[in-house]
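WARN retry 2 of 3 for item q-0093 after timeout on previous attempt; input resubmitted unchanged.
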Amino acid sequence: MRLKDKVAIITGGGTGIGAALTEAFLKEGARVVIGSRNPNHYKVFVERLEKEGRPIIGLELDITDKESVDRFVGKAVQRFGPMAILVNNAGTSGQNPMAKEGDERWMTILQTNLTGTYYMTKRVLREMPDQSHGRIINLSSVLGKFGVAGYTAYCTAKHGIIGFTRALALEVVSRGITVNALCPGWVETEMAKLGLREWSEAAGLSEAEVRRQAVAAIPMKRFTEGTEVAELAVYLASEASQAMTGQALNICGGATMS
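OK item q-0093 returned
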Protein backbone atom coordinates (compact mmCIF):
# COMPACT_ATOMS: atom_id res chain seq x y z
CA MET A 1 0.00 0.00 0.00
CA ARG A 2 2.61 2.50 -1.15
CA LEU A 3 0.01 5.26 -1.65
CA LYS A 4 -2.27 4.56 1.31
CA ASP A 5 -4.85 7.35 1.79
CA LYS A 6 -3.10 9.66 -0.68
CA VAL A 7 -5.56 11.62 -2.83
CA ALA A 8 -4.72 11.44 -6.52
CA ILE A 9 -6.19 13.10 -9.59
CA ILE A 10 -5.70 11.21 -12.85
CA THR A 11 -6.93 13.04 -15.95
CA GLY A 12 -8.23 10.80 -18.70
CA GLY A 13 -8.27 8.07 -16.08
CA GLY A 14 -10.99 5.84 -17.54
CA THR A 15 -9.40 4.46 -20.70
CA GLY A 16 -6.05 3.25 -22.02
CA ILE A 17 -3.00 4.13 -19.94
CA GLY A 18 -5.27 6.21 -17.67
CA ALA A 19 -7.35 3.17 -16.72
CA ALA A 20 -4.20 1.20 -15.93
CA LEU A 21 -2.94 4.10 -13.81
CA THR A 22 -6.24 4.32 -11.94
CA GLU A 23 -6.34 0.62 -11.08
CA ALA A 24 -2.68 0.60 -10.01
CA PHE A 25 -3.12 3.64 -7.75
CA LEU A 26 -6.24 2.19 -6.15
CA LYS A 27 -4.44 -1.11 -5.55
CA GLU A 28 -1.74 0.83 -3.68
CA GLY A 29 -4.30 2.47 -1.38
CA ALA A 30 -4.85 5.86 -3.03
CA ARG A 31 -8.19 7.62 -3.24
CA VAL A 32 -8.59 8.53 -6.88
CA VAL A 33 -10.52 11.16 -8.83
CA ILE A 34 -10.67 10.73 -12.59
CA GLY A 35 -12.12 12.98 -15.24
CA SER A 36 -12.88 13.13 -18.94
CA ARG A 37 -14.85 15.27 -21.37
CA ASN A 38 -16.89 12.21 -22.32
CA PRO A 39 -18.70 10.54 -19.39
CA ASN A 40 -18.82 7.33 -21.45
CA HIS A 41 -15.04 7.16 -21.02
CA TYR A 42 -15.33 6.61 -17.28
CA LYS A 43 -18.89 5.87 -16.07
CA VAL A 44 -18.95 2.08 -16.53
CA PHE A 45 -15.32 1.85 -15.37
CA VAL A 46 -16.06 3.85 -12.20
CA GLU A 47 -19.27 1.93 -11.48
CA ARG A 48 -17.37 -1.37 -11.59
CA LEU A 49 -14.70 -0.11 -9.22
CA GLU A 50 -17.28 1.40 -6.85
CA LYS A 51 -19.04 -1.97 -6.64
CA GLU A 52 -15.69 -3.43 -5.56
CA GLY A 53 -15.61 -0.88 -2.73
CA ARG A 54 -12.82 1.20 -4.23
CA PRO A 55 -12.54 4.91 -3.23
CA ILE A 56 -12.98 6.50 -6.65
CA ILE A 57 -14.90 9.43 -8.13
CA GLY A 58 -15.55 10.08 -11.81
CA LEU A 59 -16.36 13.63 -12.91
CA GLU A 60 -16.74 15.48 -16.18
CA LEU A 61 -13.62 17.46 -17.06
CA ASP A 62 -12.49 19.45 -20.06
CA ILE A 63 -8.86 20.27 -19.36
CA THR A 64 -8.85 22.91 -22.12
CA ASP A 65 -11.51 24.93 -20.24
CA LYS A 66 -10.33 26.77 -17.10
CA GLU A 67 -13.85 26.89 -15.63
CA SER A 68 -14.27 23.15 -16.09
CA VAL A 69 -10.89 22.55 -14.44
CA ASP A 70 -11.86 24.78 -11.51
CA ARG A 71 -15.19 22.98 -11.00
CA PHE A 72 -13.55 19.57 -11.24
CA VAL A 73 -10.79 20.29 -8.72
CA GLY A 74 -13.24 22.01 -6.36
CA LYS A 75 -15.52 18.95 -6.32
CA ALA A 76 -12.54 16.62 -5.85
CA VAL A 77 -11.29 18.55 -2.83
CA GLN A 78 -14.80 18.81 -1.37
CA ARG A 79 -15.15 15.02 -1.54
CA PHE A 80 -11.66 13.74 -0.68
CA GLY A 81 -9.69 16.68 0.73
CA PRO A 82 -6.31 18.17 -0.28
CA MET A 83 -4.50 16.68 -3.25
CA ALA A 84 -1.25 14.78 -2.86
CA ILE A 85 -0.77 13.52 -6.44
CA LEU A 86 -1.63 14.82 -9.90
CA VAL A 87 -1.15 12.66 -12.99
CA ASN A 88 -1.59 14.71 -16.17
CA ASN A 89 -2.48 11.83 -18.45
CA ALA A 90 -5.26 13.21 -20.67
CA GLY A 91 -4.15 13.91 -24.20
CA THR A 92 -4.82 13.47 -27.88
CA SER A 93 -2.73 12.51 -30.89
CA GLY A 94 -2.98 12.50 -34.67
CA GLN A 95 -1.16 13.48 -37.80
CA ASN A 96 -1.08 17.08 -38.99
CA PRO A 97 1.04 17.20 -42.18
CA MET A 98 2.05 20.72 -43.15
CA ALA A 99 0.63 20.18 -46.65
CA LYS A 100 -2.84 19.60 -45.24
CA GLU A 101 -5.24 22.56 -45.20
CA GLY A 102 -6.47 23.96 -41.90
CA ASP A 103 -4.98 24.46 -38.44
CA GLU A 104 -7.66 22.78 -36.32
CA ARG A 105 -5.71 19.66 -35.43
CA TRP A 106 -2.60 21.67 -34.49
CA MET A 107 -4.69 23.82 -32.15
CA THR A 108 -6.55 20.87 -30.63
CA ILE A 109 -3.42 18.83 -29.96
CA LEU A 110 -1.49 21.70 -28.36
CA GLN A 111 -4.48 22.95 -26.38
CA THR A 112 -5.22 19.49 -24.99
CA ASN A 113 -1.74 18.09 -24.39
CA LEU A 114 0.11 21.22 -23.36
CA THR A 115 -2.26 23.99 -22.27
CA GLY A 116 -4.57 21.52 -20.54
CA THR A 117 -1.65 20.22 -18.49
CA TYR A 118 -0.80 23.80 -17.53
CA TYR A 119 -4.38 24.57 -16.46
CA MET A 120 -4.69 21.40 -14.37
CA THR A 121 -1.32 21.81 -12.69
CA LYS A 122 -1.81 25.46 -11.84
CA ARG A 123 -5.19 24.75 -10.23
CA VAL A 124 -4.12 21.62 -8.33
CA LEU A 125 -1.03 23.34 -6.92
CA ARG A 126 -3.41 25.58 -4.96
CA GLU A 127 -4.77 22.46 -3.24
CA MET A 128 -1.45 20.67 -2.67
CA PRO A 129 -0.04 21.36 0.82
CA ASP A 130 3.65 22.16 1.19
CA GLN A 131 5.99 19.49 2.57
CA SER A 132 3.25 16.87 2.33
CA HIS A 133 4.24 14.29 -0.31
CA GLY A 134 3.33 16.43 -3.32
CA ARG A 135 3.79 14.57 -6.61
CA ILE A 136 3.11 15.74 -10.17
CA ILE A 137 3.54 13.21 -12.97
CA ASN A 138 3.19 14.36 -16.58
CA LEU A 139 2.65 12.02 -19.50
CA SER A 140 5.00 12.93 -22.32
CA SER A 141 6.10 10.41 -24.96
CA VAL A 142 9.16 9.16 -26.80
CA LEU A 143 7.97 11.74 -29.34
CA GLY A 144 9.04 14.25 -26.72
CA LYS A 145 12.59 12.98 -27.32
CA PHE A 146 12.66 12.72 -31.12
CA GLY A 147 10.61 13.79 -34.14
CA VAL A 148 8.32 11.87 -36.49
CA ALA A 149 7.30 13.25 -39.89
CA GLY A 150 3.68 14.33 -40.01
CA TYR A 151 3.37 14.67 -36.24
CA THR A 152 4.65 18.21 -35.69
CA ALA A 153 1.85 19.16 -33.27
CA TYR A 154 2.16 16.03 -31.14
CA CYS A 155 5.96 16.18 -31.07
CA THR A 156 5.84 19.88 -30.20
CA ALA A 157 3.39 19.24 -27.36
CA LYS A 158 5.31 16.29 -25.92
CA HIS A 159 8.67 18.09 -26.14
CA GLY A 160 6.92 20.97 -24.39
CA ILE A 161 5.74 18.70 -21.57
CA ILE A 162 9.36 17.80 -20.82
CA GLY A 163 10.37 21.47 -20.71
CA PHE A 164 7.35 22.22 -18.52
CA THR A 165 8.31 19.37 -16.18
CA ARG A 166 11.89 20.54 -15.78
CA ALA A 167 11.02 24.19 -15.17
CA LEU A 168 8.16 23.45 -12.79
CA ALA A 169 10.32 21.02 -10.81
CA LEU A 170 12.65 23.88 -9.94
CA GLU A 171 9.76 26.23 -9.18
CA VAL A 172 8.10 23.97 -6.59
CA VAL A 173 11.08 22.10 -5.14
CA SER A 174 11.10 24.33 -2.04
CA ARG A 175 7.52 23.21 -1.36
CA GLY A 176 8.60 19.58 -1.19
CA ILE A 177 6.78 18.76 -4.43
CA THR A 178 8.43 16.61 -7.09
CA VAL A 179 7.63 16.85 -10.80
CA ASN A 180 8.55 14.13 -13.28
CA ALA A 181 7.50 12.97 -16.74
CA LEU A 182 6.94 9.56 -18.28
CA CYS A 183 7.82 8.98 -21.93
CA PRO A 184 6.12 5.83 -23.22
CA GLY A 185 6.69 4.41 -26.67
CA TRP A 186 4.06 2.27 -28.40
CA VAL A 187 1.57 1.11 -25.74
CA GLU A 188 -1.31 -1.32 -26.31
CA THR A 189 -4.14 1.25 -26.30
CA GLU A 190 -6.88 2.61 -28.56
CA MET A 191 -4.68 5.66 -29.22
CA ALA A 192 -1.96 3.34 -30.53
CA LYS A 193 -4.51 1.64 -32.80
CA LEU A 194 -5.48 5.05 -34.16
CA GLY A 195 -1.83 5.84 -34.82
CA LEU A 196 -1.32 2.56 -36.67
CA ARG A 197 -4.47 3.20 -38.70
CA GLU A 198 -3.28 6.68 -39.72
CA TRP A 199 0.14 5.30 -40.64
CA SER A 200 -1.53 2.53 -42.64
CA GLU A 201 -3.68 4.97 -44.60
CA ALA A 202 -0.83 7.40 -45.25
CA ALA A 203 1.58 4.68 -46.40
CA GLY A 204 -0.94 2.58 -48.31
CA LEU A 205 -0.07 -0.48 -46.25
CA SER A 206 -2.17 -2.89 -44.22
CA GLU A 207 -2.52 -2.28 -40.49
CA ALA A 208 -0.86 -5.65 -39.89
CA GLU A 209 2.18 -4.55 -41.90
CA VAL A 210 2.60 -1.20 -40.18
CA ARG A 211 2.30 -2.93 -36.81
CA ARG A 212 4.97 -5.40 -37.90
CA GLN A 213 7.25 -2.48 -38.86
CA ALA A 214 6.54 -0.71 -35.56
CA VAL A 215 7.43 -3.81 -33.54
CA ALA A 216 10.55 -4.43 -35.65
CA ALA A 217 11.85 -0.94 -34.74
CA ILE A 218 11.62 -1.71 -30.99
CA PRO A 219 14.66 -3.54 -29.57
CA MET A 220 12.43 -5.58 -27.23
CA LYS A 221 10.19 -6.50 -30.21
CA ARG A 222 6.90 -5.74 -28.48
CA PHE A 223 4.61 -2.92 -27.46
CA THR A 224 4.61 -1.79 -23.83
CA GLU A 225 1.63 -2.70 -21.67
CA GLY A 226 -0.37 -0.01 -19.88
CA THR A 227 0.26 -1.82 -16.59
CA GLU A 228 4.00 -1.36 -17.05
CA VAL A 229 3.60 2.40 -17.44
CA ALA A 230 1.33 2.39 -14.38
CA GLU A 231 3.90 0.61 -12.21
CA LEU A 232 6.51 3.25 -13.03
CA ALA A 233 3.97 5.98 -12.22
CA VAL A 234 3.26 4.34 -8.85
CA TYR A 235 6.98 4.44 -8.08
CA LEU A 236 7.17 8.15 -8.96
CA ALA A 237 4.12 8.80 -6.77
CA SER A 238 5.56 6.90 -3.81
CA GLU A 239 8.01 7.81 -1.04
CA ALA A 240 10.67 5.72 -2.78
CA SER A 241 11.12 8.41 -5.47
CA GLN A 242 11.51 11.38 -3.12
CA ALA A 243 15.01 12.20 -4.44
CA MET A 244 13.83 12.34 -8.08
CA THR A 245 12.52 15.49 -9.70
CA GLY A 246 12.71 17.13 -13.12
CA GLN A 247 13.24 13.79 -14.85
CA ALA A 248 11.75 12.45 -18.11
CA LEU A 249 11.84 8.66 -17.94
CA ASN A 250 11.59 6.54 -21.08
CA ILE A 251 9.51 3.35 -20.97
CA CYS A 252 9.60 2.21 -24.55
CA GLY A 253 11.26 -1.20 -24.94
CA GLY A 254 14.51 0.53 -25.91
CA ALA A 255 13.03 2.50 -28.84
CA THR A 256 14.93 5.67 -27.93
CA MET A 257 18.29 3.88 -28.24
CA SER A 258 18.07 3.65 -32.04
